[in-house]
Amino acid sequence: MALVGDWQRQADYSHGFLVAPLALVVLWLRRDRFPRDFRRPGWLGLGLVLMSVAVAAVGLRYFLAPLAGWSMILWIGGVCWVLGGRRVFVWALPAIVFLFFMVPLPYRTEHLFSGPLQRVATIISSWILQAFGLPAVAAGNTIYLGDHQLEVEQACSGLRTMVGIAALVYVFVITTRRSWWIRALLVLFAAPVALLANSLRIVATGLLFHFVSDPASRLFSHDLAGWFTIPVAAALLGGVLWLLGRLLVEVEPAAGPELLGRSQAS
To answer: How buried is residue 231: exposed, middle or buried, by Cβ count under 10 Å (0-12/13-18/19+)?
Structure first.
């Protein structure tokens, strides 16, 4: 229940409501790989169950909320191992690992990433606004638009977009059978795509602020931006995937008899 409260209170982790259903989708997409000759029970899974209890105890003792969420995922993995055996555990492991995306990051880790992300988002957004012909100047985490100021707050750092895009890329990598180099390049593009999508959100806020009104920009920034950023980031990621498919075409090598026939014909 604590996790659900975090998803409701923190906009950066509202995607947590979608993680468990998507984990079930991952299992469904991997159904053809389900082991037919698995053995059960797998008593070694009790080690993971005991580890989950220890992690939860440490979290309660030192008030480390993320440990409680992580312990639940370890418990799920341990129970899966006990009930289905090692083979079933290995089959379900990608979906179990995916559950870590629903647990909020530790405060220090979040704070460590939020600051640099705010700064980068401010710089990129100001460049794009300048490309639109607006007098945008970045100073710290503030964008000056003429006589107006656009604050890029911690909630606008793009951490939510970064985590959401990382989750999408993870699902793509473990469920598709594309070449390893396409999947590797997509992983490398995940962070730049998330940064660009978040910057476009700030740019849209700035354009509304400059050309429409302050209330309109606030409405978009606080109520509609979440519905804007993730779809835009997903569309950009799809564009990257499409471009990679056009630039790097996979060619199947011809079989030996076919090559021999061609050489004799020539």
So the answer is: exposed
Q: Which long-range contacts (CB under 8 A, 24 or more apart) does 61-64 make?
A: 64/106
Asked whether residue 48 falls in the same domain as residue 68, the answer is yes
Model pTM above 0.85 = no
Please give the radius of gyration of the chain, using alpha carbons only, rounded to the nearest integer: 24
In this structure, the number of other CB atoms found within 10 A of the CB of residue 26 comes to 20
Judgement on whether residues 159 and 80 belong to the same structural domain of the protein? no
The first and second tokens of residue 80, run together, are 């899966």
Query: How many Cβ atoms from other residues are within 10 Å of residue 123's Cβ?
Result: 15
Omega before 253 within 30 of 0, i.e. cis: no
d(CA 105, CA 13): 9
Q: What angle do CA 158, 164, 169 make, to 5 degrees?
A: 125
Residue 151's identity, in one-letter code, is: E
pLDDT over threshold 60, residue 260: no
Parent domain of 92: 2-102
Q: pLDDT tens digit string along 188-199?
A: 888 888 888 888
DSSP classification of residue 41: -
What secondary structure, in 3-state letters, does 103-155 show?
Answer: CCCCHHHHHHHHHHHHHHHHHHHHHHHHHCCCCEEEECCEEEECCEEEECCHH
Burial 149-162 (b: 16+ CB within 10 A, else e): ebebeebbbbbbbb
Cβ-count burial 235-246 (b if 16+ within 10 Å, e if not): ebbeebbeebee
Same domain, 122 and 188: yes
